[in-house]
Amino acid sequence: MKKRFGLLLAIIVALFMTVVPLNAQHAQAADNSLAEIQKKGTLVMGTSPDYPPYEFQATVNGKSTVVGMDIQIGKKVAKDLGVKLKVKSMSFDSLLVALQTGKIDMIISGMNPTPARRKNVAFTHVYYQGGYSIVVNKTDKAKYKDKDSFKGGTLAAQTGTTQYNAIKKQTSGTKTKGMTSQSDLILALQSHKVDGVAMEKPSAQAYVSNNKSLASIPSHFNMSSSATSSAIAFRKGSTSLVNEVNKTVDQIKKQNLVKKQYLPAAGKYLKTNSVDTSMPHYWKAFATGVEYTLIITVCSVFFGFIIGILLALARMAKGNPLKTALRWLATAYVEFIRGTPMMVQVMFVYFGLGLFVNLPALTSGIIAISLNSGAYVAEYIRGGINSVNIGQTEAARSLGMSNGATMRYVILPQALKNIWPSLGNEFITLIKDSSIVSIIGVTELIYQSNIVRSDTYRGVAPIVVIMVLYFIMTFTASRILNYFERRMQHD
């Protein structure tokens, strides 16, 4: 099933790896994990809701909700601990880092308690023992029999999972394809980008039962019991909490609640999902995505512009050693931000700073995008200032204006007029780049489209809708910016 860190997360962990071990050692020295949860009164469960019937999105009473057998297990764990359950959705590759940095208290997401993972987190007893199947297009069912039938073809799985590693190690002459989302994998399968998708048997059954164009075949992977079982993950050293939760897990297994209650309940939601899968039915989800996209964009543009002005002025500072130091710091900042991917920056702000300050996902996203935008805006402004004729500065100084007043009232207004097209382009770019924050669970447009795809099992239609919505937003913003640009030129 699902496994280990992704490459980007490994980079982030390396950046603050000296801090995490200290936290882990402290936790082992004084284990009060159970008392802390009970004192807090809430238990934050991290999950990746794209893996039916374990966890997935369903419309319940007109509202998109995370449901599935893992959610039922999480509710029982929280009830037995006497606390409230809070479910936090994020990509599977982000879960382990989120657990280690305190963003979540536990992971219930069909996670396998493999030896490699046990080195980093503490697992409860196994609550479910499963197996693997391969989903193929129904038209290809006669062509493929198991994993060995895909020689010369492409077999896919969710990145970071045990299925993905099994494909690489246990197949020959087969191309391995990995994606972060199950819904993306199914879309790739239906569009014939891949020939088969390896996943858990219950998940395969869920997709096949809700899509008549799909079929499942045996995988015949040679897997250990730990690679086909699911357990709950907690931070390393949370012995008292794990021991208490083990009582709940043992009760679930003794009463066979997974097969008797939790899986049938998940199946009911899967049937509900297929009642109305038209895109207008999910207009609220898309509207919420547009709302958060605009909030992130507007806030990031505002703060990015302020940061950009400060950085531009710092980069142009000359004179005493303090100004020289500021110039070097500003230059280093701009070069570093422009030289690293925004995705890594978003994840570092959310997870890295999360070691010290527990920032919400939305706030972290705005901060990261603002810091990124500020570096680019700084260069636009610096170029704009340099484009203003030196005679403007000399004329202002001859009238008795100070350096500050000259910059504020004479240079910057003219520079802004010169760089307005570049600033407008930055605004348009941020509307699209805001989609990156979906990786930390911010409910912007991409995140909402993934919810709809998981809810409806339709891959293309939600993508078409968000393409249209992004175009409407960018085209409208472009027309507004062009209007003000014409006004500036007229003035």
TrEMBL record:
SMART domains in the record: PBPb
PROSITE patterns, per the entry: ABC_TM1 (PS50928)
InterPro entries, per the entry: AA_ABC_transptr_permease_3TM (IPR010065), ArtM/GltK/GlnP/TcyL/YhdX-like (IPR043429), MetI-like (IPR000515), MetI-like_sf (IPR035906), Solute-binding_3/MltF_N (IPR001638)
Keywords noted in UniProt: Amino-acid transport, Cell membrane, Membrane, Signal, Transmembrane, Transmembrane helix, Transport
Signal peptide: 1-29
Protein's cellular compartments: Cell membrane
Topology of the protein relative to the lipid bilayer: Multi-pass membrane protein
Keyword Transmembrane part of the UniProt annotation: yes
Residues covered by the ABC transmembrane type-1 domain: 290-481
Membrane spanning residue stretches: 292-314, 348-371, 460-481
The keyword Hydrolase is annotated on this UniProt entry: no
Principal cellular location given in the protein's record: membrane
Family stated for the protein in its record: Belongs to the binding-protein-dependent transport system permease family. HisMQ subfamily.
Descriptive protein name: ABC transporter substrate-binding protein/permease
Species whose genome carries this gene: Lactiplantibacillus plajomi
